[in-house]
Amino acid sequence: MSDTQRRPFEQRVKRIEKRHRQINEYGADPRLTRDGLIVVKARRRMRRFPWRALLLVPLLAFALKAGLYLHLGPEDWAERLAALDPEDPVDRAGAFVLQPDPATLWIAEQVDRAGG
């Protein structure tokens, strides 16, 4: 078989093998076409819960908070927290979230130590 014939043949074989793999992993649904031919289609892969994103969002939030804490410094950070209005529920929630917690301080210390 020449190379010009072999390449399309190998592509078709890969496509068929991929379809068989999908059918074996996720199951299949047979369907009847208009002309009476039974065609087996692989089921779509079930979407899983995004555990990685659920873990990554808080880690990035802590990293951002630590970066801001490191950039502003502890004194400026405390001044900005004190400037938030304790009567406003949004400011109160912001002050609670922005308190320098141990995780933020540890990340800021590690970044500062790595930065020189």
Automatic annotation (TrEMBL):
Keywords (A to Z) from UniProt: Membrane, Transmembrane, Transmembrane helix
TM segment ranges: 53-72
Q: What is this protein called in UniProt? A: DUF3619 family protein
Q: Which organism is it from?
A: Histidinibacterium aquaticum
